[in-house]
Amino acid sequence: MTATHEIIFDRLVYSCAFEKHRGSEEFYPDHFLGFQLCGETHAFHDQGFTVIHENMVVLVKKNQLIRTIKYPSKSGKYNFIAITLDKETLQRYAFENKIVIDTQYRGKQKLFFEPNEFLTSYFISLAPYINKTKQATPRLADIKVREAIELLLDSNPDLKYILFDFIKTYKIDLEEFMNNNYMFNVPIESFAKLTGRSISSFKRDFAEIFDCSPKLWLKNKRLEEAYYLIKHKRQKPTTFYLDLGFENLSHFYSSFKEKYGLTTSEI
């Protein structure tokens, strides 16, 4: 059985699986607070690899590219709850509580929390909505999201610099970003947004830096990494082609032969 996602109310998503499931790349435009009920999640991101264990709470910062692998527990269950902290709700909360942030957060972001009574109780309180024993009205949904914000600020007041940073995204170093995120198979539009650019300015800046189109550069970059893994790490394409952003093996093999004039077995 494949993994399933169910939207309980507009900002609460419940995910479950009964066998190992490799998720696709996902772009998260909003912050979200998550809780691992059963099993564990292996998350791959531009900073490396993180394992989210059972009973771990995680705050994921907005504008992230993440790939996940979901592992059920020994009982055969995988359950994860994620509640979105959308910009509109955060702006309204900041206005009502007179919170103004005029500088960006510079410290080390603590995005993982040890289970505590308040956070654990919060997620337990969502059970009636997940089990469908209680229907969430828009007002109740809004209250639950606000409660999540209150608990986050109580656990770490400095998180206000992350949650309430509404400064318009500025252009970031395009070369560094692409070299850290080339393996994510997402549309060019997502890469543009994540680097603080429109599609046209992204393509223009990209051409100036890399002297080719984003599509061609991504293809060559992924193939170069594949060559390295085959030649020097003795890895088989079946173990890494998805992780490098290729959609299927036949596409990978044909692209590899076209670039290097050799099959992977001839390397």
Automatic annotation (TrEMBL):
Pfam families: ExsA_N, HTH_18
Alphabetical UniProt keywords: DNA-binding, Transcription, Transcription regulation
Keyword Transcription regulation found: yes
InterPro entries: ExsA-like_N, Homeodomain-like_sf, HTH_AraC
Keyword Transcription regulation: yes
GO molecular function, one term: sequence-specific DNA binding
Cross-referenced PROSITE patterns: HTH_ARAC_FAMILY_2
SMART domains per UniProt: HTH_ARAC (SM00342)
Domain HTH araC/xylS-type: from-to ranges: 172-267
PANTHER family xrefs: ARAC-FAMILY TRANSCRIPTIONAL REGULATOR, HTH-TYPE TRANSCRIPTIONAL REGULATOR EXSA
Listed name of the protein: AraC-like DNA-binding protein
Source species: Sphingobacterium detergens
